[in-house]
């Protein structure tokens, strides 16, 4: 204020002068407070207002022409006197006043008002007040118009006319079907109608997470609850639900999980199931469950919402539920059939010919003037097709400068996907080349032209090859209409169909529901866990083939989730509650046993989301170099683990620089955020099932207390940031630049030159707030994460081996065998075989695609006795997460692992011949071993390890956590077994014919002697003759001597003379007999040691005395003999006969 | 029933001319927490749902001084000139209004008040 004394003129622009007025009008508790956005807006408004006033004064008496004194006097006789003032003043049009008398008086009282010294005088205060009144009036009008516009839009939706009817129907019937086409407003309005007519606790399911968020946002805005929580959403990692929430948008999968916890869904009064016509697996199942539920809960209201597709099906399924059909709001669309001429039709192996698509672009340029707006949406079947057409259109666009070409599919980075919503500059059209994602999931406004290829790629499951398959099909008429409809959302449109009308007529009416296409493992597991009885007899709206269900049941049995009678096992009921594939769930459970939870959590999460590695970056040398340190040649899950850990470290070090860190490596950071969230969810699930030890409690150190306080402060700041961001959201769309088309820096194209795009990618997004980072920090304790990450970053090779074993046990039976000739093939021609599919290849994204040598058997080391051709101790298998056939059958997310060791430790079925030189695993892998005796020893160890592993795991699952000592002991032995078992063998895949004739079959003369012998070798086991395979079943997974090998037939006679080094017995022995003798005839000092190591498995009681009761079938006598004596006794009979 | 953080819904405001219907949280001349601000008419007020601030409000409408119909503040339905008048009443008594107001009204198309689409 001191400076003002120098200046005796009032200056509106001076901050000090303004501050004085702020003291009057914008005090701390005033409607507008100094420093707020409104306050800034006011002063900006003030300047405009002053200019406007000055202009008006300049134009002088113009206004006075209305100063007609008659106006208020000369009213029509007989009418009412309104008592209006005689002179016009714009001030009279404002219905607000601002009383600041108190402050003004106070100022006067303090002698504040010193006209000569530039304090605000009466005039200034009056001026300011007037401006403020106009400002308030202006803001009122703005807000009111926003509200009025909103209400107007709601009322002009086609569904608005049916508002009362809908409410009426829902009140009267427990199930109602609302059918309406795109744009009728059902998804946003129906929940609001029900809410405002008094229903509460409404859940509305959506097939997609993204729709839950956007609908909750829209509906809370429309119901004037933008800043409240009356309307919320709940998806996998996020919820805005509070106790005040009356309307909740959630995914179908999530509602199903809620039913698992709360079978009557008593928390809801109304359930709305939206988009039922899409026929997703979850949705079909949900409908089945709800159909049963409405019978039990007559008070529950169920509303099915569908496009006008196959409505009868839904109505009839719900016993004739009433249907309310609402017309959509579509503008007329002209359909043009332009079948592709035969010479431009691609044969199966060739690339798509882009010419028919280019012609459409050219046609639009010729026929429609550029001033007429309207974008183009082009539907193709897949990413490779998009890439081909994109390239051609891009060339055309560069030439004409009239198009911006953008791809759209789910493997693009989110930023790239988001671009399709931006606006093209005047005179330029967007050409969006999309998969069927734009058919229903993504809605783009402003589309006037649609090009429909008529093709779609759909995932199907081939139960025979146990393989997912992505195949191209003709679309259905329903999809075709849906695609067409996208042209008529904002005005009349045109749809070019690149097929003949006769093709259209031949299309199937509806798409094949997902339940008929996909593997039903998770579904069956969930049904079992919900106690829905036999999945085969569940009344689905459109039941899947019985064989599909049978395949799933078999698979779950193989995985140990179901027992022989088809009931849930302990682990199965746990797996049913994990929202992931069974194999991933198994990894989590296994990881919780050993002290490897943290890396397993990370890997399980990483394998459950899309890969963070952007495909295009693979061809970028800089990215490739930067990624190099992340690669692990142990397998892709290890690469993902390294990547996640390095990312967490980068987050700490550079504080917010992780975005750049990711870009440099060609990583989609969003996926890493998904991982960290999923990881946390897994951890909570494990903890809630008692599978994780609670964090160590103990006293809180002062340092810890300080850290917690710091964290709290930081969280408050972060919340503030997030709030600011949320407020700014919904900002206007960007305008695209011409050169922004093409595949840019983050295309997800298949194999072709993806980096041909414009090569830019240095976007200046650094300054704006990284909201993901803020959310991340709010949700996670970064310090803790970093500790965990650095701990699992430097796993010892032993820990790594154990981790690998856990992963592979989880992934089993998803194993592939390298072809024996791979070492002589080119890198790109390496092939592998699974049990059900020959000749699969490694997906190019896998670490083994670029480094296949690590899978080859090393050159034969010389001097190994008994190692024949192809024999080695170094054979490896590949465990994989997915097998998907596109143009080739690809395995992806692979781990390499020692073959024999893994098979013995995890496989469901190991069969051997008499001398254990031949093993067949799961009926498809044959291992020929040079040293039968040694093999028998290895098998014996494996049996023991598995028994112990199983025992500890069951204890863990029953919440009796095994002792750390037992665990440590087991993990040491497992690792030793995996890494240091030295046996030479060959491994090959059996032919179909060989697999059919594996077994000797039940024998008329069960070899009891063998059983006895085996009891000695496998103490604690009780071998029984196998009624189907023949031989002796030692454990549930190991059957001895059941293989019908030609040499096997003579195994009984294949005795060679041998002298026991301990008792000097000299006799002809079969290998089995020899081992049996050795097992029982050990030098005295060895015995106690052995006893200790096998203490859990309680060796046969007679092991101390060496003799036991033996019943000889031939002389029908009970004899007490040692093993050697038994052999001698048997031999007598053999010689006698 | 709760409409939004901060404001308790007192009832439903419905414009008798255009049918605009929306809840209101206050009726009177002195909306809560507004200190120096006073309304010059008894108004239906809604806590501003588009603002995070608890005290921001929107005036929805009030009664026409002449016919006492409840009307919204939308320019298609009413105007304020020292008092609230619904447009039909303004037209009825147009001669009593100053030239400026008359001119403003004339500028507006002689189009009828926008009707309720639901009743179309
Ligand atoms: Zn109105
Ligand atoms: Zn009136």
Structure description:
Chain A: This is DEAH (Asp-Glu-Ala-His) box polypeptide 34. Chain A: InterPro entries: DEAD-box_helicase_OB_fold, DEAD/DEAH_box_helicase_dom, DHX34_Znf-C2H2, HA2_WH, Helicase-assoc_dom, Helicase_ATP-bd, Helicase_C-like, P-loop_NTPase. Chain A: Keywords: ATP-binding, Helicase, Hydrolase, Nucleotide-binding. Chain A: One of its GO terms (molecular function) is hydrolase activity. Chain A: It holds the Pfam family OB_NTP_bind. The complex is a heterodimer of chains A (1137) and B (120). Chain A is α/β, with parallel strands linked by helices and 1137 residues long. Chain A folds into 7 domains: 112 residues, no CATH class; 166 residues, P-loop containing nucleotide triphosphate hydrolases (Rossmann fold, 3-Layer(aba) Sandwich); 179 residues, Rossmann fold, CATH 3.40.50.300; 56 residues, Arc Repressor Mutant, subunit A (Orthogonal Bundle), CATH 1.10.10; 179 residues, no CATH class; 104 residues; 141 residues, no CATH class. In chain A, 41% of the residues lie in helices and 14% in strands. Chain A contains 38 helices and 32 strands. In chain A, helix 23 packs across helix 28, helix 29 crosses helix 33 and helix 32 runs antiparallel to helix 33. The longest helix of chain A is centred in the first third of the chain and has 34 residues. Chain A is elongated and about 140 Å long. In chain A, 39% of the residues are buried. Chain B is mainly beta and 120 residues long. Chain B has one domain. Chain B has a 4-stranded antiparallel beta sheet, with no helix packed on it. A two-stranded antiparallel sheet of chain B has the order 1-2. In chain B, strands 3-4 form a two-stranded antiparallel sheet. In chain B, strand 10 and strand 11 form a beta hairpin. Chain B is elongated and about 40 Å long. Chain B starts with a strand and ends in a 13-residue tail after the last helix. The N terminus and C terminus of chain B are likely disordered. At the A-B interface, strand 1 and helix 5 of A face strand 1, strand 4, strand 6, strand 8 and helix 2 of B. Strand 1 of chain A pairs antiparallel with strand 6 of chain B, so a sheet runs across the interface. The site of one zinc ion has 8 residues of chain B, from strand 9.
């Amino acid at each position: 204020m001191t400076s003002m004394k120098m200046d005796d003129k009032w200056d509106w622009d001076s901050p000090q002068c303004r501050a004085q007025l702020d003291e009057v009008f914008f005090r701390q508790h005033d409607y507008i407070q100094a420093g707020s956005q409104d306050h800034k807006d006011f002063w900006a408004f003030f300047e405009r207002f002053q200019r406007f006033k000055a202009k008006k004064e300049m134009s002088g008496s113009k206004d006075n022409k209305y100063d007609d004194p008659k106006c208020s006097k000369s009213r029509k006789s007989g009418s009412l006197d309104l008592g209006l003032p005689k002179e016009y003043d714009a001030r009279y049009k404002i219905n607000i006043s601002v009383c600041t008398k108190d402050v003004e008086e106070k100022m006067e009282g303090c002698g504040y008002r010193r006209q000569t010294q530039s304090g605000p005088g009466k005039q200034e205060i009056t001026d300011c007040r007037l401006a403020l009144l106009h400002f308030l009036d202006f803001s009122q009008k703005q807000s009111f118009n926003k509200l009025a516009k909103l209400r107007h839009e709601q009322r002009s939706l086609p569904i608005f006319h049916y508002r009362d009817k809908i409410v009426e129907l829902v009140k009267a019937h427990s199930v109602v079907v609302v059918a309406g086409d795109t744009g009728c407003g059902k998804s946003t309005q129906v929940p609001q109608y029900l809410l405002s007519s008094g229903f509460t606790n409404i859940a509305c399911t959506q097939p997609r997470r993204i729709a839950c968020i956007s609908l909750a946002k829209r509906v809370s805005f429309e119901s004037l609850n933008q800043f409240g929580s009356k309307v919320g959403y709940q998806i996998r990692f996020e919820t805005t639900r509070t106790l005040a929430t009356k309307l909740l948008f959630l995914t179908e999968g999530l509602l199903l999980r809620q039913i698992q916890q709360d079978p009557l869904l008593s928390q809801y009064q109304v359930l709305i199931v939206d988009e039922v016509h899409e026929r997703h697996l979850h949705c079909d199942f949900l409908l089945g469950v709800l159909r049963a539920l409405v019978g039990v809960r007559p008070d529950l209201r169920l509303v099915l919402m569908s496009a006008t597709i196959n409505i009868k099906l839904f109505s009839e399924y719900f016993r004739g539920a009433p249907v309310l059909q609402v017309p959509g709001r579509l503008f007329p669309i002209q359909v043009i059939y332009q079948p592709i001429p035969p010479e431009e039709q691609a044969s199966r192996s060739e690339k798509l010919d882009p010419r028919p698509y280019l012609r459409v672009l050219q046609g639009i340029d010729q026929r429609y003037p550029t001033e007429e707006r309207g974008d183009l949406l082009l539907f193709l079947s897949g990413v490779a097709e998009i890439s081909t057409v994109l390239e051609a259109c891009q060339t055309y666009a560069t030439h004409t400068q009239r198009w911006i070409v953008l791809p759209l599919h789910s493997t693009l980075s989110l930023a790239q996907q988001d671009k399709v919503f931006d606006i093209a500059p005047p005179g330029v059209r967007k050409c969006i080349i999309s998969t069927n994602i734009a058919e229903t999931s993504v809605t783009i406004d402003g589309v006037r032209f649609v090009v429909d290829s008529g093709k779609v790629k759909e995932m199907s499951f081939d139960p025979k090859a146990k393989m997912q398959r992505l195949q191209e099909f003709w679309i259905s008429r329903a999809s075709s209409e849906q695609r067409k409809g996208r042209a008529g959302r904002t005005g009349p449109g045109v749809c070019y169909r690149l097929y003949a009308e006769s093709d259209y007529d031949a299309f199937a009416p509806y798409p094949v529901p997902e339940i008929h296409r996909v593997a039903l493992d998770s579904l069956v597991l969930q049904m079992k866990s919900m106690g829905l009885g036999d999945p085969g007899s569940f009344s689905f709206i459109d039941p899947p083939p019985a064989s599909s269900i049978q395949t799933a049941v078999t698979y779950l049995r193989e995985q140990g989730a179901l027992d022989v009678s088809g009931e849930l096992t302990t682990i199965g009921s746990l797996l049913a509650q994990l929202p992931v594939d069974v194999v991933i769930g198994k990894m989590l459970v296994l990881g919780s046993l050993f002290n490897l939870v943290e890396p397993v959590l990370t890997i399980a999460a990483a394998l459950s989301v899309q890969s963070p590695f952007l495909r295009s970056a693979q061809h970028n040398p800089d990215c490739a170099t930067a990624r190099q340190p992340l690669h692990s040649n142990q397998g892709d899950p290890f690469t993902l683990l390294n990547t996640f850990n390095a990312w967490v470290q980068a987050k700490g070090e550079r504080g917010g620089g992780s975005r750049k860190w990711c870009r440099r490596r060609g990583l989609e950071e969003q996926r890493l955020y998904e991982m960290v969230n999923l990881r946390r969810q897994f951890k909570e699930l494990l903890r809630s099932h008692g599978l994780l030890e609670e964090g160590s409690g103990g006293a809180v150190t002062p340092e810890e207390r300080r850290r917690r306080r710091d964290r709290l402060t930081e969280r408050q700041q972060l919340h503030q940031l997030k709030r600011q961001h949320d407020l700014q959201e919904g900002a206007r769309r960007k305008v695209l630049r011409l050169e922004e088309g093409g595949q840019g820096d983050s295309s997800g194209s298949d194999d072709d030159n993806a980096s041909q795009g414009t090569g830019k990618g240095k976007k200046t997004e650094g300054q704006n707030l990284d909201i993901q980072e803020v959310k991340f920090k709010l949700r996670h304790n970064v310090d803790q994460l970093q500790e965990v990450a650095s701990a699992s970053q430097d796993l010892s090779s032993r820990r790594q081996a154990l981790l690998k074993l856990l992963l592979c046990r989880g992934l089993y039976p998803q194993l592939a065998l390298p072809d024996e000739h791979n070492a002589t093939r080119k890198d790109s021609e390496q092939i592998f075989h699974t049990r059900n599919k020959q000749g699969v290849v490694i997906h190019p994204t896998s670490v083994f695609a670029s480094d296949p040598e690590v899978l080859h058997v090393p050159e034969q080391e010389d001097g190994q006795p008994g190692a024949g051709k192809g024999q080695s101790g170094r054979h490896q298998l590949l465990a994989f997460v997915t097998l998907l056939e596109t143009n080739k059958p690809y395995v992806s997310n692979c781990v390499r692992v020692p073959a024999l060791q893994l098979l013995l430790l995890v496989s469901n079925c190991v069969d051997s011949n008499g001398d254990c030189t031949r093993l067949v695993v799961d009926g498809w892998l044959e291992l020929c071993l040079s040293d039968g005796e040694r093999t028998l020893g290895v098998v014996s160890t494996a049996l023991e390890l598995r028994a112990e592993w199983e025992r500890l795991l069951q204890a863990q699952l029953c919440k009796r956590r095994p002792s750390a000592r037992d665990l440590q002991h087991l993990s040491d032995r497992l690792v030793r077994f995996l890494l240091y078992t030295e046996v030479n063998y060959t491994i090959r895949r059996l032919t179909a014919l060989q697999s059919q004739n594996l077994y000797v079959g039940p024998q008329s003369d069960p070899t009891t002697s063998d059983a006895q012998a085996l009891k000695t070798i496998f103490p604690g086991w009780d071998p029984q003759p196998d009624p189907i395979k023949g031989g002796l079943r030692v454990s549930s997974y190991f059957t001895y001597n059941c293989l019908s090998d030609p040499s096997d037939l003579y195994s009984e006679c294949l005795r060679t003379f041998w002298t026991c080094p301990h008792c000097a017995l000299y006799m002809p022995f079969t290998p089995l007999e020899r081992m049996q003798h050795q097992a029982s005839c050990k030098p005295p000092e060895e015995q106690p040691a052995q006893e200790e190591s096998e203490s859990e498995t309680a060796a046969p009681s007679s092991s101390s005395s060496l003799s036991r009761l033996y019943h000889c079938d031939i002389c029908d006598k009970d004899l007490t003999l040692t093993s050697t004596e038994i052999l001698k006794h048997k031999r007598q009979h053999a010689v006698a006969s | 029933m709760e409409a939004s953080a901060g404001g308790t819904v007192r009832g439903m405001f419905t414009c008798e001319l255009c049918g605009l219907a929306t809840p209101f949280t206050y009726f009177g001349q002195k909306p809560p927490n507004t200190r120096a601000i006073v309304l010059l008419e008894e108004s239906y007020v809604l806590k501003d749902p588009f603002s995070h601030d608890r005290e921001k409000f929107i005036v929805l409408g009030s009664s026409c001084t002449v016919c006492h119909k409840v009307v919204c503040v939308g320019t298609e339905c009413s105007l304020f000139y020292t008092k609230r008048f619904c447009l039909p009443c303004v037209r009825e008594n147009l001669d009593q209004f100053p030239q400026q107001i008359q001119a403003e009204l004339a500028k507006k198309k002689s189009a009828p008040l926008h009707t309720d689409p639901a009743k179309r």
